[in-house]
Amino acid sequence: MTDKLAIDGGQKAVPDELVKVPWPVITDDDVSAVCAALRSGHIWGNAPNVVALEKEWANYCGVQHCHGTNGGTAALHMALAGTGVGAGDEVLVPAYSFHSSASCILHQNAIPVFVDIDLATFTIDPEKIREKITTKTKAIIAVDLFGLPANWDAINKIAKKNGLATIEDGCQAHGAAINGKKTGSLAEVAAFSLNGSKNLPGAEGGLLVTDDEGIFEQSRILEMAVQIVEGKRVYPAYTFGWNYRMNELSAALTRSRLKSLDELNAARKQNCEYLSAELTKLDGLIPPHVPGGFTHVYHMYRVRLDPSLGEKYKMPMPEIKNGIMYALNSEGVATSTWVTDTLPHQGIYTALRGYGNGCPWTCPHGSGVKREYAIEAYPSALQLVETTFNVEYFYPPNGRTYIEAVVHGFQKVWEHLDTIFG
Predict the structure, then answer these.
(1) Which domain range does residue 197 map to?
(2) Residue 305: other Cβ atoms inside 10 A
(3) What is the pLDDT of residues 329-360, one digit of tens each?
(4) Can you say how many angstroms the Cα of residue 359 is from the centroid of all Cα atoms in its chain?
(5) How open is the CA angle 353-354-360, to the nearest 5 degrees?
(6) Contact indicator for 30, 236 with CB cutoff of 8 Å
(7) Residue after which a domain boundary falls, among 260, 282, 310
(8) What is the pLDDT at residue 369?
């Protein structure tokens, strides 16, 4: 042990003068694109940048159709509507993700049925999907979590055998791929977010993509409260509409950012692969797993602690995680936890809060079967919550100098684990 921990008065592994640049870095080209759109005066409806972005993103994903929306949640809701999910239908969804991956199901008056994750990849476990299929199951939502695609080959085989629709939540995985086939083309329909934190940031917005014209046309009905903005306007209100339209300024920014998406993803990948190669040398620390043929775009860099650390120090894993994160943060290594609970353990599900009075679970079209939302039913998702955390600032323009300092911070903490937990 050569370096004293920062929590014990030692120097930080990541010095304060080593600048950590937050994401995204807005360029002059980004500003010019947005200002040009604003000056054009055409900033609503099917404006030029919205239409152009839809074509460009469909082409990027390798599909025929794209629709711009005002968010990833909206795109997911539209995907459900497009695949024919309706009141009382059951939709399978992973037990760990962002809230919208499951709440979009409630928007369609359908029932979320949670499926445990594969702890190696953090994505939905195909083997557990089979256990949850019933006569009421209509669709599967799988999430490309943290930038890694779900196991779509296995998921699609199960879906085809059981006549289920497949919906890809690609909100964290712009440009990721399986054997060269990009996210957005891995399921029947896919949804993306353009939130400012995403690999493709458009301030706020979303994109729906599909090769199926029927799904595309059906999903578009949710775009407006009345008639889709094409042709002569007669304003018929023939169904619900949520005004999910994309705005022109977000589209302009997204188009500008799309030009550098692959380059910036490659920089993320380079940083993260170096980080993983170094962190894998530390006992009890498990870097992100990338299956063969998969391209990870590292929206987040998530590490896992082996439960053996809890056994070694005779402490619960959440305490081990918190202690390590505190020591790392003190070293200048920024860490975070993101979503701190499994989806089925959140109040909207445990209390069957939904629309009130237990709906949609207790409504006439509901299955009438009590949903299993107990946290114990999803041990892998629970272990993810208790044993994993994010490392921040791994993305460009932060480069090798910063990543090497992060590695040094981890090494220092691991050298002193006995002291920290002794």
Answers:
(1) 28-260
(2) 19
(3) 999 999 999 999 999 999 999 888 888 888 89
(4) 27
(5) 115
(6) no
(7) 260
(8) 62
